[in-house]
Design goal:
This is Membrane protein. The chain crosses the membrane at residues 230-251. Keywords: Membrane, Signal, Transmembrane, Transmembrane helix. The chain has helices at residues 2-16, 111-114, 117-123, 140-156, 217-227, 229-253; strands at 24-29, 33-36, 43-52, 64-70, 73-84, 87-100, 103-107, 160-164, 168-170, 174-181, 188-198, 201-214. The chain is α+β, with helices and mostly antiparallel strands. The protein has two domains: 29-47 and 55-214, no CATH class; 216-254, no CATH class. The strands form three sheets. It has a six-stranded mixed β-sheet. A four-stranded antiparallel β-sheet has the order 1-3-10-9, covered by helices on one side. It has a two-stranded antiparallel ribbon with strand order 5-6. α5 packs across α6. The chain is flat, with a radius of gyration of 23 Å.
Length: 254
């Protein structure tokens, strides 16, 4: 199946770029729709595709591929805890208006070996180059500290990751990368961005979209909680009371 997909990609790419003067990326993903059902334990996403060169012949030298899978942006408030008189309390805090709910980057080599710091910052190559928008003014050093804390927290939860050297390039034409998606991944529209880099310059880029959504009973619960919070809360209380009553009846009979 993968071989047929690769062949189809190459044929389509050749038709699209017969008159092109620059290389073109033709990316694809193994799943365009990831459904979160009961018992969902995560998923593995395969991002693959082809590099099509003018004339069909790869130039001499090496190319690099960087793949970024980014989840829906969300507003997040970070609070820093401090221990005062033996008690942990909330101290400084800041809000980021557009932090990605999920961010993973995979590359054929270490990022610092592929591009310089300026290019890496422009394209957000790597966890250290995430561009987040703080709500209001904030000291750059403080912003950097909070950003490091956000990255560390999400890394421990499997929501942020950096996989250098994990992209395979075959014969300078085909490439593939595997990224794992944890069970706690947020729902929404994701973008899979692929970049072709040569001699420190980004030569081509392409994007594919992926939707992560709840399905079945999980979707019903999430929709009710978001759009009917009052009835959702009342229903949750009634169900809890009913289960408690049934538990009491059962234990009395035992």
């Amino acid at each position: 199946m993968n071989a047929l997909r690769h062949l189809a990609l190459l044929v389509c790419a050749w038709l699209m770029t017969s008159a092109a003067t620059e290389p073109v990326l033709v990316p694809e993903v193994s799943q365009r729709d990831i459904q979160i059902k009961y018992g969902f334990t995560g998923a593995e996403l395969l991002l693959f595709g082809a590099i099509v060169y003018p004339g069909g012949t790869p130039p001499s030298g090496d190319n690099d591929i960087v793949v970024i899978l980014k989840g829906p942006p969300q507003s997040i408030i970070l609070r820093e805890k401090q221990k005062i008189a033996g008690i942990w309390i909330n101290a400084a805090s800041t809000e980021f208006r557009s932090a990605p709910g999920y961010y993973a980057v995979a590359s054929s080599r270490p990022i610092d070996k592929i591009v310089d710091e300026r290019t890496a910052a422009i394209y957000e190559f790597g966890l250290g180059n995430l561009q987040l928008s703080p709500a209001g003014s904030i000291d750059p050093k403080e912003q950097s500290r909070f950003l490091s804390g956000l990255v560390d927290l999400n890394q421990r939860e499997g929501l942020y990751k950096q996989q250098e050297g994990s992209v395979e390039i075959l014969e300078g034409v085909l490439y593939q990368a595997r990224l794992s998606i944890p069970a706690s991944v947020p729902t929404g529209l994701y973008t899979a961005e692929t970049f072709l880099v040569r001699d420190g310059q980004v030569l081509a880029a392409a994007v594919r979209e992926i939707e992560v959504r709840k399905f079945g009973f999980e979707r019903f619960v999430a929709t009710a909680a978001e759009y009917q919070p009052f009835f959702y809360g009342v229903s949750a209380v009634l169900i809890s009371l009913l289960l408690g009553w049934l538990g009491g009846v059962v234990f009395r009979k035992i």
